Structure formats: C-alpha cells, structure tokens
Amino acid sequence: MTSLRIGTRGSPLALWQAKHVAAAIAKNGGPPTKLITIRTSGDRLSNASLSKIGGKRLFVKEIEEALVEDRIDLAVHSAKDLPSERLPGLSICAALPREDPRDAIVASQSNQLDVSQVTAISILGSSKSPLRIGTGSIRRTAQLKHAFPGINISSVRGNVGTRLRKLDDGNFDLLVLATAGLLRLNLANRITARIPSELCVPAPGQGIVVGEYRNNDAETDELLASIADPETTAALAAERALVTALGADCQVPLGAIATPSDDQLIVRGVVASPDGKTLINQEAHGSFADASNVGREVASLLLKHGAESILSAARSMAE
Predict the structure, then answer these.
(1) How many CB atoms lie within 10 A of CB 131?
(2) Which is nearest to 288 in space by CA: 248, 245, 236?
(3) pLDDT on residue 314
C-alpha cells in the first residue's frame, strides 16, 4: 500500500478524529495518509431531528458508499454515530483509546457558575425556576426527566460549535453534550460539570473512535489492529452487542456503558420511555474475551424486565 485514503466528515470534531487516527498509524510505521472530506446527508439536514429523517446512517451513508466503491480505504467515525446494523462487506475496529464517555453540562458564558462549587446534580436539581436546557439526544432527555421530573429540556442540533453559539446567544441556559467531543476540541474550559454515568448512562460507543474498512482489505485490517486498544475494543463489542440484541436505534432512549474493572468488564444498560416516567436499568459482568455475550446478557435482562414495551412505544411515537 503506497498511501491510505481516509474518509471523514468535515466537522472540526470529525477532522480531529481522522487526523489522530492518521497520526497513530504513522507512529506505528504505517503508510502515508490522505484525508478525504465527505459531506453526508446528516450534515445537510442539520436542523432536523435524527429520529424523523432516517436515523444515524445519515451521518455515515455517503462515507460508507465511498468505502464500498473503493474511493477511500478507511472511514473514521464516532462510534455512537454508527448504526447497529453493518453493511455487507464492511468491518469496524476501535481505533483509539476511549475518551471520557460521560455527558457534560455546559453553562452559557453569561451564566456565572463556580465550577469548583457545583455538581451535575446540584445544577439540574436546583429548585429555582427551571433552566432552559438544550440537547440533541432523546437518551439524555429521557434519563434526565426521570431523575428530575420538572426539568425543562428542548432539542438542539448542529455540531459542537453551532450548539455553543446557540447557547451563548441566549437560546438556552445550559447544554448537555458529550464530554469526549469537548475535550478533543480543546474546550475543557466550557465544561461546567460532568454527569455521573449512574445518573445518565452514556450512548453506546460514546467517546470511542472507530475505523471502518472493507472485509477483503487485509492491509487496512492489520493497520487498525496495530493501533487498537484492547479495553476499548472489548467495551465497543459489548455495547454494540447489547444494542443489536435489542434491535434499537436512535429513535429509542437507550444507554449502554461497558467499564473495565481489573480483568472484568461491567456492562450496564438502560432503556427509558421518552417522557422519562419509566426507566429500566440492568447490568452484568464477564471477561473481556466474552464482551459480546455480556452485552447480550444485559439486553436479555432488560427485555425480561419489560424493555420491549418501552422500545415498541418509542418506535411507534417516531413513526
């Protein structure tokens, strides 16, 4: 291989991911890389709700097409943007160590909060007049409404920079965003508080960067294997197995997090009704080698405790 063509979306965060994967490959003695920016349907429809316009595949469709058509050799994605169903002939691999998977509260610059004195619970549970909170995630909305029934949440779309501008322009008092994206964009100073994963279980794959490649491309497979992080790989396998077993998609308020603990993987999953009134929470643990089975075990426990009725209702509401 004389060079590796890497396909990516053009947002600042997507470019950060692609550049860091390219750097990791170079550090391991890989070939020269070329970044190819591809605009996706999700980028063009940036103001619409994902669950209404076709789901997560809108953010990867054109990139995967370029991969299948051999216009690129490797696609770099945020794992949480990948649909649970893989396209035939394509494989994925966790490409970098996982960043902090938790969600974060970001206050507007005019909202003077002492970050050393506040926690996510103290902010969201404040008895003052309800703060206007923006998020693009029905998962966050459902879990936070369950924990704080009086909370005032509305939808916000766009990349991180666009959302922060809407916040600072006064459209919201707070945003809830992925901690990983803020850290990767050198925006740690905007984080007011990180939400404990026990309070709001992250999206499956949150904080994980993945490479996607053709099954018959042994060279790219070897390159990705050389930079893969074993713990992140196991966590991704468990979380995606859980999602697949539930048949879930972005229309469903679903959280999943696999946390390494010594030589074990603790997998936790949550399914909530969109209004937050009902929430089912289950966990299991097992070895790294058995990660996918542990994820499926948690899915089975969720279904056993009534998740199917929530999943069906959420899908019906989205139709």
Answers:
(1) 18
(2) 236
(3) 74
Q: What is the CATH number of the domain that holds 284?
A: 3.30.160.40
314 in a structural domain: yes
Task: Let me know whether 8 and 80 are in one domain.
Answer: yes
Cα–Cα distance measured from residue 224 to residue 241, given in angstroms and rounded to the nearest whole number: 21
Lowest model confidence (mean pLDDT) among 42-46, 133-137, 226-230, 255-259: 42-46
Report the number of distinct structural domains present in the chain.
Answer: 3
Indicate if 249 belongs to the active site. Answer: no
Contact 179/101 with Cβ under 8 angstroms? yes
- Distance, in Å, from the CA atom of 205 to the CA atom of 79, rounded to the nearest integer, reads 5
pTM of the model: 0.91
**Whole-angstrom Cα distance, residue 239 to residue 242?**
5
Q: Which of 73, 81, 103, 217 is catalytic?
A: 81
Tell me, what CATH number does 135's domain have?
Answer: 3.40.190.10
